[in-house]
Amino acid sequence: MSAAEPITAAEEEVVVAAAEKEEAHKLERKWAFWFDNQSKPKQGAAWGSSLRKLYTFDTVEQFWCLHDQVFKPSKITMNADFHLFKEGVEPKWEDPECANGGKWTVTCSRKGNMDNLWLETLMALIGEQFDEADDICGIVANARSRQDKLCLWTRNASNEAAQMSIGRKWKEILNVDTPLTYSFHDDSKRERGTKGNRYTV
Ligand code: MGP
């Protein structure tokens, strides 16, 4: 290509790709958005049969694009869940990374603060703001008639010091006055609706 000639479409593509590559801000790790629409469960369907991984990303730019266009928990239907999990970890108790874990829960409202608390948490996760980041699996937004909530899943429930550090940090990030409670997945497995709160911040 000489300076006098106009750039071809193919050349333009190469230039744009190079520019995008240069500008993209790589995250510390790869993340995935998931969605589970349980608003119309099929009779007899096992839990998780409607759980889907939607997108993975590893740059700041991809994150904002996905967040702006798709992922606002206030928009999801009753009984649906949104998730942001580390790539390679499935948002279920059965995943080996989650099997011995548990979750911190904060109550919120789709009509009120849910989108804001969700976004603050997402930025803290992808920005690696938690000291115990390796102990975190991901976050779930649950739209529920009795109470919307966000749950931060962690890996090693019995490590109280790690969970307390994560819980305190999350509360600071969320900037809420309500208590955050921690439950073990093992307790949730045993009986539906059992709160079994083990830690509180
Ligand atoms: P939920 O969706 O996490 O909470 O679990 P919800 O709807 O607020 O209800 P509560 O139990 O906290 O009051 C609802 C139910 O879905 C559980 O009781 C399980 O039966 C099932 N379930 C939820 N999760 C996250 C899993 C999972 O990871 N694996 C399996 N096998 N079942 C799950």
UniProtKB/TrEMBL annotation:
UniProt keyword annotations, A-Z: Cytoplasm, Disulfide bond, Initiation factor, Nucleus, Protein biosynthesis, RNA-binding, Translation regulation
A GO term, aspect molecular function: RNA 7-methylguanosine cap binding
Xref: InterPro entries: TIF_eIF4e-like (IPR023398), TIF_eIF_4E (IPR001040), TIF_eIF_4E_CS (IPR019770)
Any GO BP: regulation of translation
Domain of life of the organism encoding this protein: Eukaryota
GO cellular component terms, semicolon-separated: eukaryotic translation initiation factor 4F complex; nucleus
Primary location: cytoplasm
Compartment(s) where it occurs, according to its Swiss-Prot or TrEMBL record: Cytoplasm; Nucleus
Coiled coil: none
PROSITE patterns found in the cross-reference section: IF4E
Annotated family: Belongs to the eukaryotic initiation factor 4E family.
Complex and partners: EIF4F is a multi-subunit complex, the composition of which varies with external and internal environmental conditions. It is composed of at least EIF4A, EIF4E and EIF4G. EIF4E is also known to interact with other partners. In higher plants two isoforms of EIF4F have been identified, named isoform EIF4F and isoform EIF(iso)4F. Isoform EIF4F has subunits p220 and p26, whereas isoform EIF(iso)4F has subunits p82 and p28.
PANTHER family reported in the protein's UniProt record: EUKARYOTIC TRANSLATION INITIATION FACTOR 4E RELATED, EUKARYOTIC TRANSLATION INITIATION FACTOR ISOFORM 4E-2
Protein's name in the database: Eukaryotic translation initiation factor isoform 4E
Organism this protein belongs to: Lithospermum erythrorhizon
